[in-house]
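Project outcomes to date are best conveyed with an example. Our students and postdoctoral researchers have been running inverse folding experiments weekly, and each run begins with a structure described purely in tokens. The record below, which covers 669 residues, was selected by the lab manager from last quarter's runs and is presented without edits.
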């Protein structure tokens, strides 16, 4: 390594001989080399191309030799790069591609499950253009290890996808600065950079994050560069796939990129030991152990619990996170199927208590009450109100089918929907948050599709077409302001940014509207559901993130394929799926998109992996309390980090999501 002190700077040669769509591809490369205890030095590499070879020129004293192969397959160009050590060396390699001379201001970007357009819905405290117009991130942040750039003026796009099997990870001693990895890793980096007004896609190995790394919610930290050791005679071979194409708009770009990535990666279903009926049996223990009775409301304790103890903390929450009423419906249904009288009695007591004490004087659901802390939410959300209404409508329809009517519940819901009518804006949207008098506090329309669903259900249940007309008003808003623009945001309650749940809810809302409509109108809603579904699916992992030994999730064998990242702000994976499984299978049947059905099976099988049951508790304190904050990358929600859970979790919604997943076609039925 002493020879490094005498290295001279290698100049950049930008190669212009490769052609795609009659436009030159320009390349550049560099390598950082580090002597432990010393600051790394970055060396630009002379790069030339001869026939199908990439030739990286190094000085004779360089302890690492770099060679490359270039293979063209249609519109793809496959770069295979090999680094071989002539002496022990710690390295970080980077290559960049500029195609079609894209001007940065004309571009919108994609790093699936993490970056959409310019992330301008996200705050400055999360990765976004508010902080920088150039970003490099580690691959395990991304649901597909890919960066895409779409030119909104020309419709052209190009992507770079990691072509290797990413199987191994290594611990690092620090999260920022220059870090030497503890062993072999396959995790590289990808991203985009603005160089003199032009956009470059950059990628390399091992990982880097710049100009900042995102370590926890709303916390950007200094950049990080990892170094892997190559011993004398060892080599590392890396592959990236460059692709160019054209799209009519950003949504078409998203659909094309997800489809081609799925076709390349071919994610397969995950084998699990339990049948789906056995999964329900395990999950049902949550209903029994989490039940809490008070003089006011009865509920299932399901929010902000300790993962080790899973004890009630006095919080009753209707919609996201707790989903108390939806769980009560599932518990009632299952109790009657299995003859569990205790479970049935407790579920009925929850409905009875909310009918008696669960509404404000103005007719809104009491969304959140904490009996330990003696406080209650006074700011309401269209999402929680809608999710509660959805649960009650499922309950009422179930009871009606059994010959049991609940006129007081029907009166309560009619009053709630009268409030909805007052809340709905002229453009069809609903405010994200409001007070008990219906005064708007957050007018953002990103949560609107959550209201579409119970309005369609109410039309069916009450036989009142006015509810469907209001739902169709939301449909027009979703079409013009959300789906056509490909702008999905502000659905999750603890973040106000680009998020998975916004696109998932939009697809589900259009699914309901299509089923409730006929002819051309039904087809329009179906096509909009398909468009939103592609966005939703970009949040779901098409590959398996590796973990280092000692990171619990890896040690118990978690496969991340089929799990969804959450949002730009909350960079972890979870099992939020609810009715998306049905939406995907319905779209597969009605639009012949076979990938949707294939991936829905991946989702359904994969999301059962962390089910806690005796001998397979997955780090959770009680049977059936399914984990929530699954930290799969270098990010944490306040505790533990990659390979572990946060110390608090909300099993109320995870149980509800998985139970809904296992109760297929409930909407169509």
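After processing, the design step wrote out the following sequence:
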């Amino acid at each position: 390594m002493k020879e490094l002190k005498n290295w001279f700077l290698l100049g950049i040669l930008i190669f212009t001989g490769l052609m795609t769509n009659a436009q030159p591809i320009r390349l550049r490369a560099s390598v950082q080399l580090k002597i432990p205890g010393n600051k790394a030095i970055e060396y630009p590499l002379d790069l030339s191309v001869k026939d199908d070879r990439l030739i990286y020129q190094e000085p004779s004293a360089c302890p690492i030799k770099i060679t490359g192969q270039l293979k063209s397959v249609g519109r793809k160009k496959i770069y295979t790069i090999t680094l071989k050590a002539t002496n022990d060396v710690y390295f970080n390699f980077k290559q960049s591609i500029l195609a079609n001379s894209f001007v940065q201001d004309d571009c919108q970007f994609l790093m699936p499950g993490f970056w959409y357009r310019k992330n301008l819905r996200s705050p400055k405290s999360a990765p976004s253009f508010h902080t920088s117009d150039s970003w490099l991130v580690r691959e395990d942040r991304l649901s597909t290890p890919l960066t895409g750039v779409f030119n909104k003026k020309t419709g052209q796009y190009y992507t770079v996808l990691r072509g290797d099997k990413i199987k191994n990870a290594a611990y690092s001693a620090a999260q920022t600065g220059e870090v030497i990895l503890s062993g072999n890793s396959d995790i590289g980096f990808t991203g985009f950079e603005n160089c003199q007004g032009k956009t470059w896609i950059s990628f390399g190995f091992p990982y880097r994050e710049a100009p900042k790394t995102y370590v926890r919610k709303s916390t950007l930290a200094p950049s990080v560069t990892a170094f892997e050791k190559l011993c004398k005679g060892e080599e590392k071979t890396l592959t990236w796939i460059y692709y160019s194409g054209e799209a009519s708009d950003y949504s078409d770009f998203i659909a094309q990129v997800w489809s081609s990535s799925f076709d390349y990666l071919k994610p397969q279903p995950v084998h699990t030991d339990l049948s789906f009926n056995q999964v329900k049996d395990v999950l049902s223990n949550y209903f029994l152990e989490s039940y809490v009775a008070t003089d006011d409301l009865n509920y299932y304790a399901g929010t902000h619990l300790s993962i080790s103890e899973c004890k009630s903390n006095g919080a009753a929450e209707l919609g996201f996170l707790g989903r108390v009423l939806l769980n009560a419906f599932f518990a009632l249904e299952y109790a009657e199927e299995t003859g569990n009288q205790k479970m049935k009695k407790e579920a009925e007591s929850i409905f009875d208590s909310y009918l008696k004490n669960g509404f404000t004087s103005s007719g809104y659901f009491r969304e959140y009450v904490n009996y330990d802390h003696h406080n209650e939410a006074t700011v309401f959300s269209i999402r929680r109100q809608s999710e509660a209404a959805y649960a009650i409508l499922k309950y009422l329809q179930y009871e009606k089918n059994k010959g049991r009517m609940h006129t007081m519940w029907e009166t309560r819901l009619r009053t709630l929907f009268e409030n909805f009518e007052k809340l709905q804006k002229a453009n069809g949207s609903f405010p994200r948050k409001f007070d008990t008098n219906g005064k708007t506090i957050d007018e953002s329309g990103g949560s609107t599709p959550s209201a579409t669903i119970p309005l369609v259900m109410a039309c069916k249940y009450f036989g009142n077409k006015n509810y469907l007309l209001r739902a169709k008003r939301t449909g027009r808003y979703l079409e013009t302001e959300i789906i056509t623009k490909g702008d999905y945001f502000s659905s999750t309650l603890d973040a106000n940014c680009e998020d998975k749940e916004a696109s998932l809810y939009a697809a589900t809302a259009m699914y309901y509207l299509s089923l409730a409509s006929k002819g051309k109108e039904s087809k329009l809603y179906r096509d909009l559901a398909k468009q939103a579904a592609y966005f939703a699916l970009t949040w779901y992992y098409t590959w398996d993130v590796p973990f280092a030994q000692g990171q619990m999730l890896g040690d118990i064998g978690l496969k991340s394929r089929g799990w969804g990242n959450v949002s730009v702000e909350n960079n972890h994976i979870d099992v939020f799926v609810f009715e998306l499984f049905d939406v995907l299978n319905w779209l597969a049947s009605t639009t012949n998109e076979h990938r949707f059905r294939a991936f829905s099976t991946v989702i359904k099988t994969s999301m059962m992996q962390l089910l806690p049951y005796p001998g397979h508790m997955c780090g959770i304190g009680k049977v059936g309390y399914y984990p929530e904050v699954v930290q799969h990358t270098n990010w944490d929600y306040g505790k533990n980090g990659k390979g572990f859970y946060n110390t608090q979790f909300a099993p109320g919604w995870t149980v509800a999501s998985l139970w809904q997943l296992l109760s297929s076609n409930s909407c169509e039925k």
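Residues 1-22 have pLDDT under 50 and may be disordered. The domain at 2-265 is CATH 2.70.98 (Beta-galactosidase; Chain A, domain 5). The training component of this project remains on track.
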